[in-house]
Amino acid sequence: MSVTETAVENPPASGPSGRRTPRFVAAVWAAARNGWRQLTSMRTALMLLFLLAVAAIPGSVLPQRSVKVEDVQRFYTANPRLAPVLDRLWGFEVYASPWFAAIYLLLFTSLIGCITPRLRDHVRALRTAPPDAPKRLARLPQSAVLDAAVDEAAAKAALRGWRTVRREHADGTITLAAEKGYLKEAGNLLFHSSLLIILSGVGLGSLWGWHAGRLIVAGPEQVFCNTVQQYDDFGLGPRVGAGDLPDFCLELTDFRAEYRPDGMPVSFAADVTATDSAHGDLGRHTFMVNHPLRLDGANVYLLGHGYAPVLRYTDAAGVTQETVAPFPYTDPTLTSQGVAAFPDANGSDKTKQMAFSGTYLPTKDGPPYLRSDHPEERNPALMLTAYRGDLGLDAGIPSSVYDLDQRQLDAGRLKKYGEPKLMRVGETWTLEDGSKVEFVGTRQWITVSIRHDPGEPIVLTGAVLLLVGLPLSLYGKRRRVWLRLRPDGTAEAGGLPRTEYPGFEDEFRSLVERWQR
């Protein structure tokens, strides 16, 4: 048979590259195994944890769409060239970006791969008895030959708290093997498992959690219901829709604030009445700073409060309108500035719409009327400036309800109408055209943050386990000691610290002294 015929009758099992296939598979397998070892090492886990912290920095520096879309729009206006580049890099949605998710999942995988074999080894160590004493105890880091005979029962009593195993050998020698410090590895595993639990809770909260903010004014006509349309700002998780929000409404019935003589706040408390469509009245509740109102499916946190002047305007035709205008405060004494608008004043003529820009001072006895003397309402004053013209509300451009449209002012479509006027509660100001505005009084308003985070209890559990595991891993010391009792009455001992333990020499010496008593 020729060589050619042999090649035809016995072709390569895997084609022309058949000889290279086993070697290639082995190389791929070795590379994958080494990569997995590197990924699941503690050093890699720490690097990924640091990288995750670094990756979260852009989410703290740049405005995020999930927090406040208006801030992102303002960033686009201020940085028209930079903003599109950052947007393509997920700069405004950092925590939903693929690169942040990749780091998160790699860290998750690394921690699982790191913890699993160590947990298996720790369970095996707990189930395995301490090994028998080595033949030459003198070679251990700590060793001693005991001068006096040692009583076995007394030796066991001295090892109370140690995991001790007694072994009897054929020549009559008895050895006691004792080990202590298993809590160090247990604490280590608990610490790293807590990181895994915290990451799981954070991930669950980011997917199924939501948050929103709202300013609520006191009064039955100012009832707030938990819908997206009534939020001032909101952020919903990727797995949360507008229809998933819990059903409840809140009415602010009272607000109480206590201040020191120097104006420093002591306590805030808000009274609300809660209702829902299924059960009706849910009762009256009081909540304070750091003591949120806990409802089914949401927590309501009290963030701040202020005053909303109540103005009653009567136009030249005798038509009266009343508005409650929340004024945001500008300093700790609750000096507040805002706008009260009357877009329906003077009929349908947009050029005769009225608005009043004002500064509210809760306590002010005399000029200058620039800053309140105290945050509590003792002698309130309201400095008003009237404006007349097109307020720009029909332009379809989003604008703040707390400021006049600067575009209308610059274009001259909205002009100052008369001189500023200082008003006290109950006073009436008559304008040039015969219209009147009355300072009726004020109402309280509060700002609340409404949140739901299903991962919160998981994160709390992880944090508690972390605080428990960290001291155990830092202060726990794994060590072993052996005591060999010979038939002739002599004895020797040895000790081995399994981890770095500077105090082991003193502990071993103390054990030897107790054995020799």
UniProtKB/TrEMBL annotation:
Any idea where this protein resides?
Answer: Membrane
A Pfam family found in this protein is ResB
The record gives the membrane topology as: Multi-pass membrane protein
Q: Which GO terms describe its cellular component?
A: membrane
- Protein keywords: Cytochrome c-type biogenesis, Membrane, Transmembrane, Transmembrane helix
For this UniProt entry, which segments traverse the membrane? Answer: 45-62, 99-119, 189-210, 458-476
Entry-linked InterPro entries:
Cyt_c_bgen_Ccs1/CcsB/ResB, ResB-like_domain
Keyword Transmembrane included in the entry's annotation = yes
Q: Name one GO biological process term.
A: cytochrome complex assembly
Any keyword Glycoprotein? no
Residues covered by the ResB-like domain: 42-509
Q: What is the protein name given in its UniProt record?
A: Cytochrome c biogenesis protein
Provenance organism: Catellatospora chokoriensis
| Gene name for this UniProt entry | resB
